[in-house]
Amino acid sequence: MAYSDLRDFVRSLEERGELKRISFEVDPILEITEFADRGVKTGGPAFLFEKPKGSSVPVLINAFASTRRMEIALEVSSVDEVAHRISDFLEMRMPEGIIGKLKMLPKLAEMGAFFPKNVSDGPCKEIIRRDNFSLSYFPILHCWPEDAGRFITLPMVFSRNPDTGKRNCGCYRLQVFDGRSTGMHWQTHKQGAEHYRRMVAQASRPARMDVAVAIGADPAVMYSAILPLPPDLDEMLIAGFLRQKPVEMVKCETCDLEVPAQAEIVLEGYVDLGELRREGPFGDHTGFYSLEDDYPVFHITCITHRRNPIYATTIVGPPPMEDFYMGKAVERIFLPLMRLQLPEILDIAMPAEGIFHNLILVAIRKSYPGHARKVMHAIWGLGQAMFSKCIIVVDEDVDVQNFREVAWKVLNNIDPERDIQFVMGPIDSLDHSSRLPNYGSKMGVDATRKWPAEGFKRPWPGVIRMSEDVRHRVDELWKRAGLG
Predict the structure, then answer these.
(1) CATH number, position 442
(2) How confident is the model at residue 274 (pLDDT cuts 50, 70, 90)?
(3) How far apart are CA 155 and CA 140, in angstroms?
(4) What is the tens place of the pLDDT at every residue in 431-453?
(5) How far apart are CA 37 and CA 47, in angstroms?
(6) Domain span at residue 220?
(7) Is 403 in the same domain as 282?
(8) Which are the contacts of 337, defined by CB distance < 8 A and separation ≥ 6?
(9) What is the chain's mean pLDDT, rounded?
(10) Could you report the per-residue pLDDT of 282-338, keeping only the tens digit for each?
(11) What average pLDDT does range 263-290 have in this prediction?
(12) What contacts 181, CB < 8 A, 6 or more positions away?
């Protein structure tokens, strides 16, 4: 059964020994960050801070911060199960003949069941505050010492494409400026920023852009906000697919948007077109402070929330952090989609230290000269994979999840001048090393075995391996020697 809301997820984590309640006072200014950082680095549980200093609203953090908790969140024994479900749908073809088509009806009905469902009311409206409200009611974290202030770090930010009317939900940090306004850190490549640009470009549009922010929901809904989906593909539809039950959506009180009806907290408001304000610095997932810059301002017109809400949040910083485990699940879940366009790919890996966009390891079934370079360029053309700073391509017999093996094989296989290629293109906005914001160089490494057709005339040596029969014989001798 799909989780009904965040509280249902919290109960599930607690029942499985994956959540620790902290019943004494802890300060949202830096102290909760230190708790969460120590927890994720030592394999600790999720935390529910019941008495955050200065607020009566409890704080949930590290809810996704392990492989096991990601499995609990997605209600699977392995996130590969989600990938298999995606593969099944991608491979579905309409058969010939009436009997074959009738047999497909249950599968098609299942697909239809994922679409979000509009409802007239929901728990997120148990308390409606149109006046006398302030963000100071919530225990919003000041994460790192040099941050510019408090930041909402796990929001679901809803906006609408002004041309198509389609909804988008993204996870963009919000720096608290005062009790009723925040920054809106949607980077230039994000869909929220694209909606904003389209409205700015068309003078006939209203001077304000409606935005709604939901905080805390069932885990599939929260997780969907971070997924690298194609433009105009509704994240709430994907959330329905993940939870195998439609997401209930309810219309906001003061803006023309819908939000998850079961959300804990909803901030309704608008962005004034053309209004910018200095935002940052912020201790980011790169492990460095992202630099201050100008971003739109989110003005809050109404706050609604559940009775006794839970404030769901996260921190980012030196890896691995909670976002690594969320990203690792993205890697596994979206591999079938990548293989749909690049079937030669057998596996990919994004090490924690690569912080998602800095390094991607790719194992391929090489079929022709230059195949590795074709794969590099194809990945740079796939949505947010365009930010991949370094792509390393290896042969199919290399386990890209084993980073020691990758380093060994790559460093033995490459002639640097021959096998490294540099290209220019879009760069992640958080990359502080590029020559210009959002634009710089990327590197591809062809670490596959080189063929004569690629100009390599020397023999390629075999890898040293002991024969299996000797290994089996020594297994018994090893035990006789008392070595285990």
Answers:
(1) 3.40.1670.10
(2) confident
(3) 11
(4) 888 889 889 999 999 999 999 99
(5) 11
(6) 6-97+110-312
(7) no
(8) 86, 90
(9) 91
(10) 999 989 999 899 999 999 999 999 999 999 999 999 999 999 999 999 989 888 888
(11) 94
(12) 297, 298, 299, 300
Closest CA to 300 of 273, 278, 270, 279: 270
Q: How many CB atoms lie within 10 A of CB 341?
A: 11
Strand partners for 311:
59
Query: Which pair of structure tokens corresponds to residue 358?
Result: 């800095």
Q: Is residue 259 part of a domain?
A: yes
- Give the least confident one: 143-147, 202-206, 251-255, 459-463: 202-206
Beta bridge partners of 363: 347, 394
Estimate the crossing angle of helix 67-74 against helix 6-15, to 10 degrees. 130
In degrees, rounded to 5, the angle at the alpha carbon of residue 411 between the alpha carbons of residues 383 and 330 is: 25
Token readout for 350 is 């994004």
What does the block give as tokens for 427? 């760069």
Do 187 and 429 touch, CB atoms closer than 8 A?
A: yes
- Same domain, yes or no, for 308 and 346? no
Q: How many domains does the chain have?
A: 2
Q: What was the pLDDT predicted at 105?
A: 45
Residue that is last in its domain, among 290, 312, 334: 312
Structure tokens at 153: 């770090």
Contacts of residue 390, defined as CB under 8 A and 6 or more positions apart, other chains included, come to: 354, 358, 359, 360, 442, 443, 444, 445
Q: Which structure tokens are listed for 276?
A: 């910018």
Mean pLDDT of the 380-398 span: 92
Q: CA-to-CA distance for 91 and 102, rounded, in angstroms?
A: 17
Q: Which of 5, 37, 234, 284 is catalytic?
A: 284
Residue 289 contacts residue 144 (beta carbons within 8 Å)? yes
Find the farthest-apart pair of alpha carbons in the chain and give their distance in angstroms, rounded.
Answer: 84
**CA 294, 296, 300: angle at the middle one, nearest 5?**
140
Nearest to residue 258, comparing CAs of 230, 277, 274, 239? 239
Distance between CA atoms of residues 260 and 224, nearest Å: 12
Radius of gyration of the CA atoms of the chain, in A? 25
Task: Give the neighbor-by-neighbor strand order of the sheet with 360-364.
Answer: 345-349, 360-364, 390-395, 439-446, 420-426
| Final residue before a domain boundary, out of 312, 333, 354 | 312
Asked if residue 1 is part of any domain, the answer here is no
Strand, coil or helix: 429: coil
Confidence (pTM):
0.88
Active site residue 27: no
Give mean pLDDT, residues 6-21. 97
Task: Answer yes or no: do 172 and 281 share one domain.
Answer: yes
